[in-house]
Specification:
Shape: elongated
Distance between the termini: 29 Å
CATH architecture: Sandwich
Number of helices: 0
Oligomer: single chain
Number of domains: 1
CATH class: Mainly Beta
Helix content: under 10%
Largest sheet: 4 strands, antiparallel
Order of helices and strands: EEEEEEE
Radius of gyration: 19 Å
Number of strands: 7
């Protein structure tokens, strides 16, 4: 897997604004060094819902379903046999990204926070998914090639 990763989500929320974050993780199996396995964060990113179409902000009416794309920072990783790919979706990744008070008020003016009850849809009509760019794996230089 090499390049930028896209996470396409169908979402709705009860708040005036909220964030959606995504983390792509290489999940190592248990080993002597890590008896419970190991989760290696490969890349992550965030989208503030009111900026889903860019600037200027476009509030989403609470409860309305929309598709958003989170473009994760480019990365490159070879997933070794026995490893798993994990995608974490959340509404926060603090302290990496600022906290969203979920009020929709201009940044720096909010005096309160509200709880966002958010939903990610993954049914046949609204198939949330991740797009992983792949490149061909080069042939093993130690393996003789047929001529």
């Amino acid at each position: 897997m090499t390049g930028p990763i896209e996470v396409r989500l169908w979402v709705a929320t009860t708040a005036a604004d909220t964030d959606f974050t995504a983390k792509l993780i290489d999940l190592y199996p248990p080993s002597a060094a890590y008896p419970h396995g190991y989760a290696l964060n490969l890349t992550d990113s965030i989208i503030r819902l009111r900026y889903r179409a860019g600037d200027p902000p476009s509030p989403l009416p609470p409860g309305q379903i929309t598709e958003v794309t989170i473009t994760l920072y480019p990365t490159s990783n070879l997933f070794v046999a026995g490893h798993r790919i994990r995608l974490d979706i959340s509404s926060s990744n603090h302290p990496r990204f600022d906290i969203n008070p979920n009020t929709g008020e201009p940044p720096g003016t909010q005096r309160r926070h509200v709880i966002a009850d958010s939903t990610v849809f993954h049914d046949t009509q609204r198939a949330s998914h991740v797009i992983l760019p792949t490149v061909p794996c080069p042939a093993d230089p130690l393996t003789p090639r047929a001529r």
